[in-house]
Amino acid sequence: SLALIPATIVSRMRVINFSPRPRNILEPLVAALPAEDRELLLGIAQGAPGIIIRCMEDAERLRAEKQAGIDAYRFLQTSSILERFREMLTVMEEEETSSLFLRQIFLKLSKNLRGSPSEAENAARSARHFFSILSILQSNAHRPLLAAHAALSST
Predict the structure, then answer these.
(1) How far are the Cα atoms of 22, 85, 105, 123 from residue 130, in angstroms, in the given order?
(2) Long-range contacts (CB closer than 8 Å, 24 or more residues apart) made by 98-103
(3) Model pTM?
(4) pLDDT > 90 fraction of the chain, expressed in percent and rounded
């Protein structure tokens, strides 16, 4: 946010906004990949070609994205508070893993927003909750407490 940057810096800078690229523009970047990887990369990129390129150049990053997607799906399908708590504790141990996990949850919830009215309502409520957790995670050292909070309040 520009509000966080000193006025002396802001007065000397130029802001360049980049718009997300449409899916049809990004599809040639992933055309040679298996269908599952194409969909994953197009989904996580959200219109940003740089994300696709980084994942294609780094097999470990692509593997981590896939695992985060699996973990997020499993988390959202679980109705047990105890199981959600355990999953959140495991995922929150590492900063990068937790960010990938939460991003995958957002992507899966955004698909649900286009579902039935009850699915959309549940997805919107969960998305608001996870957005608040993500903003706290940016600078909070109390990850286990946040994991517990997320698991208990996301049912």
Answers:
(1) 26, 14, 8, 10
(2) 98/137, 98/143, 99/134, 99/137, 100/64, 100/65, 100/68, 101/68, 101/71, 101/72, 101/75, 102/130, 102/133, 102/134, 102/137, 103/44, 103/68
(3) 0.63
(4) 18
Higher-confidence residue: 141 or 69? 69
Helix axes 81-91, 95-112, angle to 10 degrees: 130
Distances (CA, A) of 107 to 17, 104, 122, 151: 23, 5, 14, 18
Q: What are phi and psi of 89, to 5 degrees?
A: -60, -45
Q: Which two tokens stand for residue 89?
A: 């504790």
Instruction: Render pLDDT for 8-47 as a digit per residue (tens, 0 to 9).
Output: 998 899 888 888 899 999 999 999 999 988 988 998 888 8
Query: Distance of CA 77 to CAs 23, 71, 101, Å?
Result: 28, 10, 14
Closest CA to 87 of 107, 67, 111: 67
* SS3 assignment for 50-74: HHHHHHHHCHHHHHHHHHHHHHHHH
Contacts of 150 (CB under 8 A, 6+ apart): 84, 88, 129, 130, 133
